[in-house]
Amino acid sequence: MKKLSFVLSLVLLVAGFVFAEKPVTTLCKISTTMTIDGSLSDWEAAGIKPIEINKPEQVAIGKPYWLGAEKQSGKIYIAFTDDTLYVAAEIKSPQGIKNKQESGKIYDGNSIEIFLGFNNSEPDREMYTESDYQIGISPGYYLQSSKKWKVKPSVYCYNLNTPIKDAEVKAKPVKGGYIIEAAIPSSAFDGWAVDDGTEIGFDISIDDAGNKGFSRKVQLTWSGDKEGWKNPKGWGIANIKNCSK
After folding, report:
1. In total, how many domains does the chain have?
2. Mean pLDDT of successive 10-residue segments in the chain (245 residues)?
3. Could you give the CA distance from residue 65 to residue 218 in angstroms, rounded to a whole number?
4. Which of 136, 141, 155, 170 could form a disulfide with 164 if both were Cys (CB 3.0 to 4.6 A apart)?
5. Beta carbons of 77 and 48 less than 8 angstroms apart
6. What is the pTM of this model?
7. Gap between the Cα atoms of 204 and 209, Å rounded
8. Is residue 10 part of a domain?
């Protein structure tokens, strides 16, 4: 009897790990247009709350190099309209606007990533479908000495291996980090579905190079999963809600 009880306990423990609950959030669908200017004022005026990524369990890559939430963390704002994905982020980062990478390599420096799955009928799918996306947003590399951009801010779709040229993006240095804001047209996404009440697969990551060098040393993710770039199974869930006044 004791052996049977032990086996049952072990099965339940394993099941708890396998079927661990996904993180869930609500994302707003709005009717207004956000101004891409590196300011968070219109987000605050619209009453949109950020998703905070700042916990030790959210450090997916580089735990020994994480400098703590005061130096490496972020608040990310997401909103949809009928034809646009809006993203804004206030990132704490020792080096701020400093990513010399371009195109499909921008993850290897200071940047953020947005993961979207517009058909979430199989939330535990282990391969990208035609409506799943990994989007990178880089603040670029700004030289304070010359007041010029060495590398401009950019938006890139990793799984389609293509820059999103019609995206609008703006980065601005702030004390202890940077603000980045982007508008990405719905034409960049097959399967775009953002009606009120829609459930989508969703995750966010923050890539950071730490206090010296250029290459990424730390990645924090909202879900805590580090495999989202190739496997949507670890993404969380977002429910889209009409927040227009």
Report:
1. 1
2. 45 44 96 96 95 98 98 98 98 97 97 98 96 98 90 98 97 97 97 97 98 96 97 97 85
3. 7
4. 155
5. yes
6. 0.91
7. 17
8. no
